[in-house]
Amino acid sequence: MAGNGFSDIFLVYEALPELNLDQVDISFNFLNKKLKAPLLINAMTGGHPDVKHINRSLARVASQTGIAMAVGSQTAGLEDSKVRDTYRVARDENSDGILLANVSALSSPVMVKEAIEMIEADGVQLHLNVAQELAMSEGDRNFSGTLANIEKIVALSKVPVIVKEVGFGLSRETFKKMYDVGVRYIDVSGQGGTDFIRIEYMRSGRDYQEKFQNIGISTAISLIESLSTDLPIFVFASGGFTGGSDVVCALALGAKLVGMAGHFLRAFTQGSEQGLKERVDTIIEDLRHTMLMVGAANLKELTGKPLVITGKTAEWLLRRGIDINKYSYPGHAENCSCRDYGGAIQK
Ligand SMILES: Cc1cc2nc3c(=O)[nH]c(=O)nc-3n(C[C@H](O)[C@H](O)[C@H](O)COP(=O)(O)O)c2cc1C
Questions:
Q1: Tens-place pLDDT, residues 223-261
Q2: 265 within ligand 1 shell (Cβ under 6 A)
Q3: Residue 10 burial (CB < 10 Å; 0-12/13-18/19+)?
Q4: How far apart are CA 184 and CA 151, in angstroms?
């Protein structure tokens, strides 16, 4: 499937929104702090002196624009205290913002606690990356016990635990398994953006030859499969977002936050910190404009605006027995916990 699936999804335009752009409010409370927009600079970096400046800039932009940020995997910082400042800089630059720690879902609860303390994190992301590890010649091969480990971490963590993929998506079956062990925050991080199988093959000079084309779940499908479970989970959407109407579609379907990694990194490498800041500002402006075009004054109103799901995304979801016609009508999220913007679900 090409892209992250959002080119198959269309918002229904409202020519009579009866709203003033000034009224469109995209802020909400998350983890006891206020976000100015439902966006996340997703986990990318840290762990080497050469990348400290990237986390510094990402954090400054997150602070200036009022969006959330996650640091990259903290394994290097847990193993070597000398590189901890490459993560810590993100908290130093954004003392009041929402900052998420990041470790493997196979980490011990003690490591998770240390990663949280390293950056005074508001929450911790546990990443699942089976496809990426398998593509790395030096990667992990044993993934048994991951779910039981997640259960232990959720039970012991003092901050909310967010389980995320890294670009291959989640099925509703995986989503339910996580709910059953107590996970209440999940980032589907689906296929269609950063492709770690391709990256790892290229990194090691191996011939990729599109070997794994038929595996991986697009972001749009992962999100709708997850929402179809009707479970009270705070769902993040990420994977292949480029800003604009794909972000609005994800929020209208029921995602609470949209994460971007590759797109923000490209904006940073092409235009440095200022370029990234301008990109985030533009995405926020486009989000507000698109909300006006569908007649939504706030995020709660946006969730449930009609969307038409077409193409390969529709075909997949129908074959998986998911009712997609309901999304075509206003109010499809009437009884969905995804409309609960009163505060984040607590552990
Ligand atoms: C350069 C780079 C480094 C990443 N490092 C991490 C990481 O350390 N931990 C993690 O959970 N995800 C990591 N990711 C995955 C992203 O957080 C995200 O899940 C994935 O890239 C899909 O989003 P995208 O298509 O917007 O890039 C990384 C992504 C990129 C581009």
A1: 999 999 999 999 999 999 999 899 999 999 999 999 999
A2: yes
A3: middle
A4: 11
43: Cβ below 6 Å to ligand 1? yes
Is residue 101 within 8 Å of 121, Cβ to Cβ?
yes
Ranges of beta strands (E only) in the chain are 9-11, 28-30, 33-35, 39-41, 68-70, 99-104, 123-127, 161-164, 185-187, 234-238, 257-260, 307-309
**What's the predicted TM-score (pTM) here?**
0.97
The whole-number pLDDT of residue 324 equals 96
Could you tell me if 148 and 216 are in contact, meaning their C-beta atoms sit under 8 angstroms apart?
no
Q: Quick one: how many helices (H) and strands (E) in the chain?
A: 13, 12
**Contact 73 CB / ligand 1 (< 6 Å):** yes
Flag whether pLDDT at 100 surpasses 90: yes
Q: How far is the CA of 18 from the centre of ligand 1 (A)?
A: 39
Q: Judge whether 300 and 336 are in contact, CB under 8 Å.
A: no
pLDDT digits over 158-204, tens only? Answer: 999 999 999 999 999 999 999 999 999 999 999 999 999 999 999 99
Distance CA 345, CA 129 (A): 25
More confident residue, 221 or 331: 221
Beta bridge partners of 218: 191
Bridge partners (DSSP) listed for residue 41: 69, 260
| Domains of the chain: residue spans and CATH | 6-339 (3.20.20.70)
What's the pLDDT at 345?
46
DSSP one-letter string for 56-84: HHHHHHHHHHT-EEE----HHHHH-GGGT
CB of 103 closer than 6 angstroms to any ligand 1 atom: no
Cα 299 to the center of its chain, rounded Å: 17
- The per-residue pLDDT for range 66-76, each reduced to its tens digit, is 999 999 999 99
